[in-house]
Amino acid sequence: MTNIPETGRTPRVQTRLIVIQILVLSLLGTLGGRLWYLQIRNGAEYQKEASGNHVQQVVQPAVRGSILDARGVPLADNETRLVVSASRTDLLKQKDDGKAVLTKLAGVLGLDPEEVRQKVRLCDAKTPQPCWNGSPYQPIPITDEATPRQALQIRERAEDFPGITAEPEAVRRYAAPGKSNAAQVLGYLSPVTDDEIQQAKNTDSPFLRSDMVGRSGLERQYDKELRGKAGVTRYEVDNLGRVIGKAKSDAAEPGSNLVTSIDARVQRVAEYELDKAMKAARQQFDKITGENYKADSGAVVVMEAKTGRIVAMASAPTYDPNVWVGGISAKDYKALTGKDSDYPLLNRAIQGQSAPGSTFKVVSTAAAVEAGYDFNGNYPCTSSYSVGGQVFKNFEGENFGPISLGRALEVSCDTVFYGLADNEWKKDGGINPKKGQPKDYFFRAAHQFGLGKETGVDLPGEVTGRVPDRRWKQSYWEANKDAWCKTGKKNGSYVEKIAYENCLEGNKMREGDAINYSIGQGDTLVTPIQEAVIYGAISNGGTMYTPTIGKAIVSADGKHVTEIKPKPHGRLPVTQATRNMMDEALAGVATRGTAAWKFAGWPQDKIPLHAKTGTAEVYGKQTTSWLATYTKDYSVIMTIAQAGTGSGASGEAVRNIYSSLYGVQADGSIDNKKALLPTPLKSLPKIQADGSISAPKITGDPAKDQEKVAQQVNQQGDTSQGGNQTPAATTPTPTTGNRNTRRRRRGTRGRRTTA
Amino acid sequence: MTGANSFSVSGYGPRRAGWTRLLARDSMARRLDWPMLLSALALSGIGCALVFSATRNRTEINQGDPYYFLLRDLMNTGIGVALMIGTIWLGHRALRNAVPILYGVSLFGVLLVLTPLGATINGSRNWIVLGGGFSLQPSEFVKISMILGMAMLLAARVDAGDRTYPDHRTVLQALGLAAVPILIVLLMPDLGTVLVLLTIILGVLLASGASNRWVFGLIAVGVVGCLAVWQLHILDQYQINRFAAFANPSLDPAGVGYNTNQARIAIGSGGLTGAGLFHGSQTTGQFVPEQQTDFVFTVAGEELGFVGAGLIILLLGVVLWRACRIARETTELYGTIVAAGIVAWFAFQSFENIGMTLGIMPVTGLPLPFVSYGGSSMFVVWVAVGLLQSIRVQRPMSA
Predict the structure, then answer these.
(1) Chain A residues with beta carbon closer than 8 angstroms to that of B314
(2) pLDDT at B346
(3) Which of A64, A189, A390, A609 has the fewest CB atoms within 10 Å distance of its CB?
(4) Same domain for A306 and A171
(5) How far does the CA of residue A230 sit from the closest CA of chain B (Å)?
(6) Which range of residues forms the domain containing residue A28?
(7) pTM confidence score
(8) Which residues lie closer than 8 Å to B260 by C-beta, 6 or more apart?
(9) What is each CA distance from B370 to A354, B53, B360, in whole angstroms?
């Protein structure tokens, strides 16, 4: 192609020109190749990056669903407040960056203009509060307490307030219907954390910076359902954040409503009665400690026996959940969680655990029957039971002679169970069990009764309780032996002696451990909810239901209803015949046993009531009172720490709860009109398409209505007592029952005792 | 040897009238390199559209008038084309006589930039503001005057038939002539232009037939020079940053690497056919700085896609290929050197400009010939086209 003669070009130049040409075209080829690589091969990746670059999201928060009681009365709902917000994007479009508008706005709202300006500036390392730390594309709230008049002023003159909106917005409210509180059951909300945002980033329900998240109770358990889905509008913006177009918008989906099995009125009665019982206990003198009972915490559970649904659950001390709304103050927070607080955030119905005391005897009875002892056999109820120099006394040294297991339940005879447990312990080989698996009937029964593990109630943070069986002893000893062996002294103080003994054989099941265990003392721990499940199961014929508070999840428009069905999770290890006998014995507890003095005049023929009292020793503290009861419909458990005996501390309160449930009047008659819930409610409240809920109004205070009835009962009780002690001579008198369930020195925990 | 006669027929022959003259086999119109001319016009046309797309929303620089930059770009292109016609009319040989003046004027221009009359834009003292929104970039004119000056010196004795290749003394003189403006531009400092000028020297020396020793020597000096500059910290921090960002664009995506990153996102997101003119979100959102000038290629990449951006590269290829042909086909060394210098200039500047938007070259402030917005650049580029056309018009007829 080169033509030297024609151009007169020297070969050197000609060659170099060709080299230049090749070089130049290959450079362009390189560009083309690189262009292909970026646009065709990696195009999709860059397209994604580009859209991330210029799309900004504006979020409309979804309205959180309400938490309703069984009849539709809102326990937690939203109240509308008028929120005035400023859009930074719109303000920045104005010539003075919106200064004039904000000043005018401050005038209307009666705020300091400087403060309003500070509220809309963005937070960074150098900017102190107040400042906005959310997305700059999100409207920034100036106030959530605007009056309708102020809002109207702003909205009517929208052209004077470009970028300012006055909209009603939903704020959480814990309505406390009928003065019920249920703080620990409902839980609370607090703003989402950065970590949570990161974690939920790529899931199907990502968090928004403005989101509130359920932190405990039902708010947390059903957070996802209640929260709904925020609406997102995607705007295309330029590099300065100015909006240049709307890309996509999804409307907000309001959260679903949670219908619970709680009845606000029963909840109120339970709370009131618990509080009253605790106050009453504080008036009682504790002979052992030489001071009044402290009664510092307590819990009540009212559960439907045939379904496991919770009708009421109260925990004391409690607090007002509304302190969380709109951000909790540092002072309030300290009062709820600080070292000096009484930890009102704890739901003691599921997070409080203590030894069950004699309420555990139903487990021991079942274990004895399982081990082959005849329910109706004769077992000596002596005044004391001696083992190797240790004396385990019976209740106030009483001696009932040979009695059946049923009678032993009724009168809460400890020595009967001591004997049976000791027998079994010996059969299993004593302190060094025979080769092969020891039978451990008493411990196995506890596990079969669902102790030592969560009941699975639909609340977060439930604790397991504890069954102090061989395995637990071994692991507990391994964890503590070093400390025990270091501090233990053979002839030292009480604590040092215990440590010495524990160091030597704390990993073994000692005779005293087995004996003590049989009456619910020692290291056994149970929660009120576990007891509710057990006594509910005895009531319904032996099925243990997983307790539930949520009954149904209903979409905001009422169209989609997801029912939460009762779910059995096990059966009691008792035959039908044994159950029937236990049932009869527990009815006896209420009519002629340890609880009878509190249930005089109860219409037992119409509403058979069953009960078991318990008084648990706690080392270094006053006794924990337990009262476990049931009818054919409900099981009601009440426990109060440092309050003495079960019947003494809680008898009246539990009776009042039943009275209000069934409408039992002072004279023992039943007034169905006054009954709050004579049979468990099966139907669900109706939710209309527009989101409104048809719920009955609760007028007055259900607890106060009950109070009147209760006062009449007390008056009658006083007169009847003056006459004869009706039910039976075997009924312990109130005085002995109250005072003498505990008859050992303080500090005998874990070794000998009872009630 | 028809070449010898060809000088007499090139446009200065006997006068003919009207169309016949225009369409005659030896007429100017028939002898023009139309593929190059049309490609160059197409590039400028595309450039106007891209500049319009990039600037119609930039209210902070277009004084509220979306057409501000479009109109000016069209005007610049018009002036450029007129300058080309003037250049063809005068002929590169006639200009040869004016080279000392052109060289002197452009040298004066770059010196003037260093005086208080010069203005600093983007870290480089590169501009003379004329007022009324007009400004000049004298370093652009240096490119042309340097090519012409060196070509004049190197080709003088060869074209006179005294020698086959320029001797060492001539080469030294030519290098001296080039060194003066390069040093001045280095003081501005305008690293991009310095690189272009050095590339031009290489192209010019290659085409002049100067001994290989000069060529390789110059390359060696260039390499050593670069190392020295690097080691002795002669570069400003911002220049070092640009190189750092080139080596690792994710280094500081909000700062140094921002340009590179956003440019690459813009181009990459274009895909095969692009978002469509005026529909690129990166462009509309103004995420790429300097998008109407140095980063104009990103608009093409995003809005016209691989097809449109590839077309720009293809059209540049046509221009360069035709320019190479012109360099090879002309008989006089002067024309060859001028054409080769222009090829080196266009090729390097295009490669560097597009390369930096694609992330394969470091960022320097160089416009993309024909496409970028900018009067001075547009004028000299079209003058260069005029020179190439003139060389072609006056080449031997048999080609």
Answers:
(1) 32
(2) 96
(3) A390
(4) no
(5) 26
(6) 4-41
(7) 0.63
(8) B245, B246, B249, B356, B359, B363
(9) 87, 16, 21
